[in-house]
Amino acid sequence: MTLDRRNFIKLVGSASGLALAGCATQGPAVSSGSAAEIMPKTTRRVVVVGGGYGGTIAAKYIRMMDKSIEVVLVEKNDHFVSCPFSNLYLGGLMPDLSPLTIKYDKLVANHGVKFVQAEVTAVDAAAHTVVTSKGTLKYDRLVVSPGIDFRTEEIEGYDAKTPELMPHAWKAGPQTVLLRKQLEAMKDGGTVVLAVPLSPFRCPPGPYERTSMIAHYLKQHKPKSKIIVVDANPDIASKGPLFRKGWDMHYKSIIDYRKASKVTAINAGNKSVLIEGLDEVKGDVVNLIPPQRAAKIAQKAGLVGEDKKWCPVNMATFESTLQKDIHVIGDSSIAGAMPKSGYSANSEAKICAANVVALMNGREIVPLSGINTCYSYLSPDEAISVAAVYALKDGKIVGVPNSGGVSPADWSMAKTEAIYAKSWLNNILTEMST
Amino acid sequence: MKQRWSRWALAAGALTLSATAYAAGPNAQMLANACAGCHGTNGGSAGLTMPSLAAQSKTAIVDAMKKFKSGERPSSIMGRLAKGYSDAEIDMLGDFFSKQKIHFTGQTVDKAKVAKGADLQEANCSRCHLDDGKDGKDDTPVMASQWLPYLQMQMELYHSGKRKMPEKMAEKVKPLSKEDIDALLHFFASVNK
Q1: Cβ neighbourhood burial of A18 (10 Å; 0-12, 13-18, 19+)
Q2: What confidence category does residue B18 fall into, taking pLDDT thresholds of 50, 70 and 90?
Q3: What is the distance between the alpha carbons of residues B56 and A14, in angstroms, rounded to a whole number?
Q4: Distance CA A13, CA A152 (A)
Q5: Residue A44, CB-side half-sphere exposure with 13 Å CA sphere
Q6: Tens of pLDDT along A277-296?
Q7: Exposed, middle or buried, B12 (CB in 10 Å: 0-12/13-18/19+)?
Q8: Both ends of chain B: CA-CA distance in Å?
Q9: Residue A1's CB: how many other CB atoms inside 10 A?
Q10: Could you tell me the CA-to-CA distances from B26 to A335, A390, B83 in Å, in that order?
Q11: Which residues pair with A371 in a beta bridge?
């Protein structure tokens, strides 16, 4: 059978027709033995899992582009705390996390997104059903933006109690507050150990911004203290020369950066990490950021690929190459040249939303255009940035040649960028929450 | 729009073969959406130093992007980003944002300065910055309701010579005092309807 455009549209049209009919015959009745359906599906529906940088934007933009599609956003918390800028809180430049916290009420009021506060425990891709702690939800298409999980099994001695002793603070919230409290409680003359995992991980420049912010705090309040960075990577994973420049200018005697130093074990009793099982590095405060993979729900839903870490997608639409009608965006997905950053998740969500709407309406795929912008603070009034524009080439997301890059090496923009970064935060959090 | 039907996508693991049709290139909305993380949804900015692009003059946007691209207009990241767009895409971006509804920021401003600025703008700016800055003649940017810190930063760039002031604007601005300029910016920032 040959498929031309007309047939293609017909097929898509009849497929969605069937889906609707199927739903109608099921009705609101709850089948015995399984969890109750939360909101019986009566129209075309997209369920979005995860209310962070990707999920909020996907939900909002699908509604902006097609009001006839019902969008249900499922998130286990009633709020979201941004990882970007949480290093400023750790550095003592922000009194609490409230400037980084958003709620979902305006997304509901302004765009008619339906919000369900529940934890997603399973996905039945064949039945187009999401199982949550509050019951099930049926969908025509599912967008999953669940963030990261930790590969703690790669660190010998790491157990359920380790995050309390050696916080990762790589998901903003209670962990961030805990790390801050430990820094505050540390005596002057103490040692902070910050362990950076192998790439790829969430927010490539994040560990180095955090190093800068903790060093700033120590310089101001505990000047006899130091921070040892043990980095599993061969060198600083992002904006390297610029970070080095900032560290040389401000924190030369405070930061002890050790490249190619992979933490493979911990000694909880000694509050130390072991590099390749040998060198023991002891800290009064240990910020252990474990290696990462896609969040648990992505694993359970069968979205993780052969690498057993991340989710392969059709980069044009972010539809999983493993499960039909499920799209994966944000840190969990393999998005070609786009890094695992908040801005990438924002941009990917819009690309995904446009094409979810296109697919559900039998329209042609809209070739993507994406952006990443990311600022990192070196001191309270100096920041550096990386920026890039992305396009689709031969099915892969690539940086547009001769564009993008990092801040000028002469530091001429650092003060301006520290100002711009705050506007970045205001705009991106406003986009997510209104 | 020119369409291309050459691509066939086979989703691994999927049982059905589906023909996926691709448009020729990103449409205006796709291009513009990527900007919104920093400039706000549909170009309505919530960031004090980021300009709203909504309802901006198309020519002003195209002109700004081309100057960012060439380096003629100073920037931190805009130069790096502008290089990622073709002239045709820049034209589409300008067109998209010019058609969005104007974004009123509702910011707090000094009322006395606004009153002084209102008189000054009538005499000095209104021939190009039309309708209280809500419209612009030719390539004149829309100023109304832009965030005060953004306007102030741009004015500093003009004064330092890093951003080149158009000749007609320089003629008007030169005789004005610092206080006059400050009042003018307060006026434009205050426009909310």
Answers
A1: exposed
A2: low
A3: 43
A4: 46
A5: 18
A6: 889 999 999 999 999 999 99
A7: exposed
A8: 37
A9: 5
A10: 17, 11, 16
A11: A389
Which residues in A lie closer than 8 A to residue B89 (C-beta atoms)? 369
Instruction: Tell me whether residues A5 and B5 touch, CB distance under 8 A.
Output: yes
- Find the farthest-apart pair of alpha carbons in chain A and give their distance in angstroms, rounded: 75
Taking the CA of residue B145 and the nearest CA in chain A, the distance in Å comes to 16
B94: its two tokens? 């300008």
Cα→Cα distances A78→A85, A231, A261, Å: 20, 35, 38
Average pLDDT over every residue of B159-184: 95
**Cα–Cα dist A122/A2, whole Å:** 37
Residue with tokens 């969430």: A202
- B184 within 8 A of B117, measured Cβ to Cβ: yes
- Beta-bridged to residue A265, according to DSSP, are A156, A274
What's the rounded Cα separation, in Å, for the pair A207 and A125?
36
Q: For residue B40, list chain A residues with Cβ-Cβ distance below 8 A.
A: 427, 430-431
Please give the Cα distance from B77 to A404 (Å, whole number): 8
Contact A4 B5 (CB under 8 A): yes
- Which residue of A lies nearest to B70 if distances are taken between CA atoms? A403
Burial B101-133 (b: 16+ CB within 10 A, else e): ebbebeeebeeebbebbbebbeebbeebbbebb
Q: Least CA distance to A314: which residue of chain B?
A: B11
d(CA A276, CA A274): 6
pLDDT > 90: what percent of chain A?
91
The first and second tokens of residue A317, run together, are 């639409």
The structure tokens listed for A333 are 């997905």
- The predicted pLDDT at position A290 comes to 98
Please say whether the beta carbons of A299 and A147 come within 8 A.
no
**A290-311 residues labelled b (16+ CB within 10 A) or e (exposed):** bbbbbbebbbebebbbeeebbb
Residue B18 Ramachandran class (φ > 0 left, ψ -120 to 50 alpha, else beta): beta
Residue that is written with structure tokens 């958003």 in the block: A102
CB contact under 8 A, A388 and B77: no
Using the Cβ of B89 and the Cβ atoms of chain A, whether some distance falls under 8 Å is answered with yes
